[in-house]
Amino acid sequence: MPAISHHEARQRLFTHLAAMLAYWRDLPPEQLLRGNPDADPVHERLSGFLFSTLVAIDGSAALPGFDLVPRDDNEWPTTSINENVELHAAFPEDLIPPPSTPRS
Question: Is residue 104 in some structural domain?
Answer without folding.
Answer: no
